[in-house]
Amino acid sequence: MSKNPPLFNYRRYWLAALIVLLAVLDPFGLASSSDKASAQWLNRMLASKYHNDGQQRIAVVLIDDAYLMRNNTSWPMPYGEQSKLFKRLLAYKPKALFVDLLYSHDHSFGDPARGSQLLANVFERYQRQGIALWLANTGVARGEDGQANTLEHFAQVSRPALVVWDGVDDKYPLAVPTALGVMETPALAMYRQFCKGLACDELPADAEAAARLPPIAVQWGLKLAPEQVRIADIRHCTPSRNFVLDGVAQFFQAVFWKLDDSAQARCPYSFTLSASDLEVSSEEDQALLAELLRDRLVMVGANITSTGDLVQSPVHGQVPGIYLHAMALDNLITDGMDYDREPANLPFFNINWLDGLELGLLALIAVLKALHARRSAGLHTWSRWRRQEIWFFSSPYLSWLLVMLVLLAVCVLLHFNHITPVNVLGIVLLSLVLFSERIEAFFDRGR
User: Fold this and answer.
1) Beta-carbon contacts of residue 374 (< 8 Å; ≥ 6 apart)
2) How many CB atoms lie within 10 A of CB 207?
C-alpha cells in the first residue's frame, strides 16, 4: 500500500460531483436565497459610501394619506385634484416627470366637471413646455382578455414607461419585450433625458438594444440628501455616522435581525417631498421649492395605506415602489452604463461564470481540509515541500485566513468591475469546516 495515498478517493469525487449538481440545480432555492442574502448584506455594508451624484438630480414627490386628509379627498384622487397637483408641480419647471400612477380606468363617472380630460390637458401643457412626461404602463394591449392599461387620451399626451415585468428576480431591467413592443423602464427613459447635452457614456441605441443588456443590480444609498432638512423635519430619521460604525451596525443587524429589525427603519435616500409641500403660498417657500425642483428629474408616486405598492430595500426595509425607480435612475446617473450587474448566463444553462468561481472557492476549502487531514494522519503530500507544508498546515487558522484573503480579493475585484458579489455568507459559513476537528476535540474533552 502506498505511504501517500491520493488526496481524495473516488467516493470524494462522487461527492464533489453531487455538490456541483446541487449547486447547478439549486433545489428548493437554497443557494439563490443565500446569494440574495449576501448581496443585500453587502449592499447594506457599503450603503454609507454610495456616491450622491444622482441624489442631487432626482426628486420624489409622494402623494400620501396626510395629503388626502388635508384636502378632504379620496383615493383614487379625483382628476380635478390631480390637475391642481400637477399644475403646481409644472410651475417649478422640472427637467422631466415620471408619474407612477396607472390611468387605466376613468373614474369621473361621466361628469365633465370631474372628467379625466381635465388632467390630460394639464399633461399636454408639460409637452408644450418641453418637459418630458412619462406615465406608468403595463405593456399589454388594453381591452384584450380583460387587460388594463393607460387610457388612450392619456397615452396621447405622454410617453409610456414600463412598470411591470417578470423573469429578473429582484433586478431592474432597462427594457423588456411586451405585447406592445419593446418598452423601456422609467430609469432608462429618464436617464436618456438627463443625458441630453451631457457627455454621458454611450447609451443603447434603442429599446431593442437596451433589452439585450443585463438588468441593474440596484445599489441603495444611505445618507440623506443635504436638502432634505430644508423641506422636512428629519429628526426622526436614523442619522448616518461613518463607514466603520454604519458597517458594524449593519453587520450586527444582519446577525440579530430576528430579535430586532428596527435598524432598517431609515428615511429613504432619495430627496423627497410630500404632495402637501407643493401647496405652500408664501413667496419665500415657493422660491425654495423652485430652487429645489427646477431642472430636476421628478418622480411622482403614492404612499397610500390601501394601495400596497411597496418594495423591499435592503437598507430601508419596505418603501413605496417609486423609490425603486428613483434608485435605479440614481445608479445610472452615478455609474452610467457601468452599473452593477450579474454576469450573463451560459448558453442553455441558468448559471454563469460567477457560479463557477464560487465552486472554485469551495474546492479550495475542500483541498485545504484534506491537506489538514493528511497532516493529522502523519502523511505528507509533497516531500520536496515538506517543511513549507508542515509550517503552513500547522494550524487551520492559517488556511482559513488564506480563504478569507482570497474571498476578499475576489469581492474587491468584482466590486471595481461592477459585478455582483459571490455568495460571501455561504462561503464564510462553509469555511468553518476547516475547524471541524478543533470543534470536535473541544466538545470531546474529558471523554
Assistant:
1) 7, 380, 381
2) 20
Residue 236's pLDDT is 81
Secondary structure tally for the chain: helices H, strands E? 17, 10
What pairing do the DSSP bridges indicate for beta strands 297-303 and 96-99?
parallel
Q: Please name the amino acid found at residue 306.
A: S
Is a pLDDT exceeding 50 seen at residue 263?
no
- Set of cell numbers at residue 404: 478569507
Buried (b) or exposed (e) across 24-51, using 16+ Cβ within 10 A? eebeeeebeebbebbbbbbbbbbbbebe
Residues of the chain above pLDDT 70, percent: 81
**Measuring CA to CA, which residue among 292, 142, 164 is closest to residue 228?**
292
Neighbours of 401 (CB within 10 A): 11
Phi, then psi, of 379 in degrees rounded to 5: -105, 160
Range list of H helices, 26-163: 30-46, 65-70, 79-91, 116-128, 152-155
> How far is the C-alpha of 68 from the C-alpha of 55, rounded, in Å?
27
pLDDT tens figures, 282-313: 999 999 999 999 999 999 999 998 877 889 89
- Rounded to two decimals, the pTM is 0.86
Give the model's pLDDT for residue 54.
92
Residues 220/43, Cβ–Cβ less than 8 Å: yes
Query: What residue type is assigned to position 142 of the chain?
Result: R
CA nearest neighbour of 299 among 329, 266, 267: 329
Judge contact between 393 and 399, C-beta under 8 A: yes
Distance CA 271, CA 248 (A): 26
Q: How long, in residues, is the chain?
A: 447
Whole-number pLDDT of residue 1: 47
Rounded to whole angstroms, how far apart are CA atoms 394 and 392? 6
Cell of 298: 421628478
